[in-house]
């Protein structure tokens, strides 16, 4: 464990030290704040950040992820069970990622106003794709030989689905989910930047108009922390649910 922690910790420490030295040499904190000034600003703004803006962003991330997981798994299962549905939906799912989300976000603000749902829709559009595509690929990766063996032994379709296809799809699903949880933070921040009344992205944009560099970076640090923690949670769930993979 320690061998895997030390290299990135050393690299991060070197990066922060270099950043601190550069910021002090430039001495323009409104453009390039130092890590120590950002930490001080986090402490000064702890009440509005942690009590008002952080819960608003977390609500967007959690709701958007839950919707993406439910709809993404449902769509992937539907496509895996019906080739005609796959032919109809798969190109549309791929094409949806060709549209810049930041261009659609203002439209969602027009539709839903400054409510939470304009930000949730942006988050869903960003996180839906990796969950759906990875889960679908996992469902299609089941062993054909095992499938034929189970059929010859009298297995029903639901037996094959739950005992062969679902276990085959779980590693792919978690791979997509690890990508989705990090993208969910980006989606929430984009939505808040373009139209919100609260949230870490909204707060960062507001501080930018005041030329307060440290206050701009402070919510960005929290957003990064949320993404890292969500990734670690998914990784922990993956290790708990896929113990069998370690013994292969």
What features would you highlight for this structure?
MetI-like fold, 248 residues, globular, mainly alpha
Describe this structure in words.
This protein is mainly α and 248 residues long. The protein has one domain (34-242): Orthogonal Bundle (MetI-like fold), CATH 1.10.3720. The protein has helices at 2-26, 35-44, 46-81, 83-96, 101-112, 116-140, 144-152, 157-194, 200-208, 213-241, 243-246. The longest helix has 38 residues, at 157-194.
Provide a concise account of the structure shown.
The protein has 248 residues and is an all-alpha fold. The chain is 85% helix and 0% strand. It has a single domain (34-242), classed as Orthogonal Bundle (MetI-like fold).
Please report the total strand number as a whole number. 0
Shape descriptor: globular
> What's the CATH architecture name?
Orthogonal Bundle
- Helix and strand succession? HHHHHHHHHHH
GO cellular component, one term: plasma membrane
Keywords: Cell membrane, Membrane, Transmembrane, Transmembrane helix, Transport
Family: Belongs to the binding-protein-dependent transport system permease family.
Protein name: Hydroxymethylpyrimidine ABC transporter, transmembrane component
Topology, please?
Elements: H1 2-26, H2 35-44, H3 46-81, H4 83-96, H5 101-112, H6 116-140, H7 144-152, H8 157-194, H9 200-208, H10 213-241, H11 243-246
Helix pairs in contact: 2-10, 3-4, 3-6, 3-8, 3-9, 5-6, 6-8, 8-9, 8-10, 9-10
């Amino acid at each position: 464990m320690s061998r895997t922690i030390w290299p990135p910790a050393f690299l991060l420490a070197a990066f922060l030290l270099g950043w601190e030295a550069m910021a002090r040499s430039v001495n323009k904190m409104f453009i390039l704040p130092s890590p120590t000034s950002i930490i001080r600003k986090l402490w000064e703004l702890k009440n509005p950040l942690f009590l008002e803006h952080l819960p608003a962003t977390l609500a967007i991330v959690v709701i958007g992820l839950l919707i993406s997981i439910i709809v993404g798994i449902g769509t992937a299962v539907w496509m895996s069970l019906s080739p005609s549905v796959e032919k109809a939906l798969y190109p549309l799912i791929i094409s949806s990622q060709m549209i810049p989300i930041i261009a659609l976000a203002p439209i969602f603000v027009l539709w839903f106003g400054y409510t939470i749902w304009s930000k949730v829709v942006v988050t869903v559009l960003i996180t839906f794709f990796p969950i759906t595509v990875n889960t679908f690929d996992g469902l299609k990766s089941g062993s054909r030989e095992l499938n034929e063996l189970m059929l010859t032994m009298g297995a029903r379709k639901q037996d094959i689905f739950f005992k062969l296809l679902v276990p085959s799809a779980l590693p792919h699903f978690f791979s997509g989910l690890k990508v989705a949880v990090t993208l969910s933070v980006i989606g929430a921040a984009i939505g808040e930047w373009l139209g919100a009344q609260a949230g870490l992205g909204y707060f960062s944009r507001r501080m930018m108009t005041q030329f307060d560099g440290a206050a701009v970076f402070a919510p960005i640090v929290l957003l990064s922390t949320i993404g890292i923690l969500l990734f670690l949670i998914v990784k922990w769930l993956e290790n708990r649910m896929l113990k069998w993979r370690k013994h292969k």
